Amino acid sequence: MSSHIPPLAKKVPSERTHHGDTVIDEYAWLTNKEDPDTIAYLQQENEYLKQETGHLAELQEQVFQEIKGRTQETDLSVPSRKGDWWYFSRTQEGKQYGISCRVPADGDTPPIVTTDVTLPGEQVLLDGNELAGDSDFFSIGTSAVTPDGKLLAYSTDYKGDERFTLTFKDLETGERLADEITGVFYGGAWSADGTTFFYTRMDDAWRPFQVYRHTLGSPAEEDVLVYEESDERFWIGIGLTRSEKYLVLGAGSKITSEVRILDANNPTGEFQVVRPRVTGVEYGIEHAGDHFFVLHNENAENFELATAPLDSPGTWTPLVAHREDTRLLEIDAFASHAVVHFRREGLTGIRILPYPLQDAEPYEIDFPEPLYDVSPAGNPEFTTERLRLGYTSMVTPPSVYDYDLETRQLILLKQRPVLGGYDPGDYEQFREWATAEDGTRVPISIVKRKDAGKPAPTLLYGYGSYETSMDPSFSVARLSLLDRGFAFAIAHVRGGGEMGRRWYEEGKLTRKKNTFTDFVAAARHLRATGWSERIIARGGSAGGLLMGAVANLAPEEFAGVVAEVPFVDALNTILDPTLPLTVIEWDEWGDPLHNADVYAYMKEYSPYENVEAKAYPPILAITSLNDTRVLYHEPAKWVARLRATAHGGPFLLKTEMGAGHGGRSGRYDAWKEEAFALSWIIERGTK
């Protein structure tokens, strides 16, 4: 069957003028989701994709079966203690969603939970499969138990637009309460007595901007607006400290934060500002007995840890000083100790601060592998002598440890099973350093089979925005590449946070191009040093912007590009303050609407604006119709312009018609989607 590129409806182009520059957008009509021509076009694109990739069906099914065959489908998490209960989740073979459970607790040692045995007193809190029913999409946004363990607040989304319905469950009777609240955002927090729940709502731009107080048993329309954030650059969230003593209401932009606190035993009281916002100063607060911990960046680029008295939380006394080589990420406070999560030399680490702070010597936990990622994980209990850690590397499956603070020993509780005879000794991981155009050394994390040839086809992944780090981690699906002789590499480009706050600052605003040139430098380094031959680039969301930019910048370097929910129409999106999240994003990208220099700079790199009449590699763009973060029309317009302007390709668009930013929600559906992308990558790497 021959395949035909879907025809585009002939529509009037849009024309806009900014700072004296007239922009004509011939595909702007695709932004109208309500236009039948738009939906018809996306459906035709999906049919065209099936025709173009139909020959991959056997390979796709093979990869799917490999992912499925390596995954222990009936599994469970390691229980985490909170109060009188151990909380954990189960997955069951053949079921798309997890099941959250709990059993009574006694002490710090977690019970041995098995896949085929229900423990005495085990309760099912939420069964995602029952809740999902026949819905094509399902997601849980909030799951919060009252401090006394008697009630559960949870929220659900059946469309993928991340607007949730909040409901409540009596865990003693198993009955759902009559209370129901629609249109809420992620998260939320209980008062100490469990009578009141605080939640957030978003505005039309998908910005969480209001905190409401709901009293159980009262109608939702009587809920009290506690706080509204009027500055469109700021979003808000609400939480309860681990000690359960304080409610914490945080407001933050990309560069500034402001925190309010309230005694959790007085939910109808007034929130107190810790310190008024100052542009460029970020801080967060944690409660620990007779003081607060404050992690902040006032005159401390990589952040400093301070303490503050309960009656004067804005008075900060330094505790852990700023270091040029160490980025402090977060502080977790417990009854007998505190834990600092940090980043140094491109790797994460854990530092223990025993109490009393003025007497005990802090220390760090050592880990043996050259590349790894570690973080505190599942530590809801305030009074404990154990620290739960999550650990992984590019060859070590996700592992759960308890660190015993008395013996200073790591206790392995669980390592995710990888079926089919996986042996980490068959693989190797290492770090290379590329040199960017300005002389900056850019780290690259690489994993491959020890017996793989050299040079090898390579999947090169990148992100590089929002100070988000792409740390070395394990992937079951990735084994389908490695076992076919591929190498997998992560380019830790500027704009991410891998090398500290400065790494981020050098890849944002009017230094954003460093993100793109770093990635190209990484690709060229891998080829020049003999590691790689055919390189396929992959990235999603802001990493999709990276994909579009490098396709324009150096198309000859790549045998293929996979761009997932890609932010490729960056200039038009950031120019429109009515779109979701745009004003919030101005601190990350700049404000091209009001600043001519920012406009000119963004126009120089925005992928959609810079498609040229030259040869491009094959490109696979994947998006979701209900995505609220990167709207579906960005990749749709991009692919249309590539087809009209460039040569090479082919240029393919895949639109999930019933999903959001994260793609398909069920695990089997997600595996099938990944198998599709990997089969396309394998073909591109071995042609």
UniProtKB/TrEMBL annotation:
Residues 6-416 form the Peptidase S9A N-terminal domain. InterPro entries: AB_hydrolase_fold, Pept_S9A_N, Peptidase_S9_cat, Peptidase_S9A, Serine_Peptidase_S9A. Gene3D superfamilies: alpha/beta hydrolase, Prolyl oligopeptidase, N-terminal domain. The keyword Protease applies. Its EC number is 3.4.21.83. The keyword Transmembrane helix does not apply. One of its GO terms (molecular function) is serine-type endopeptidase activity. Keywords: Hydrolase, Protease, Serine protease. It is an enzyme of class 3 (hydrolase). Residues 472-682 form the Peptidase S9 prolyl oligopeptidase catalytic domain. Belongs to the peptidase S9A family. PANTHER family: PROLYL ENDOPEPTIDASE-LIKE, PROTEASE FAMILY S9A OLIGOPEPTIDASE. This is Oligopeptidase B. It comes from Nonomuraea africana.
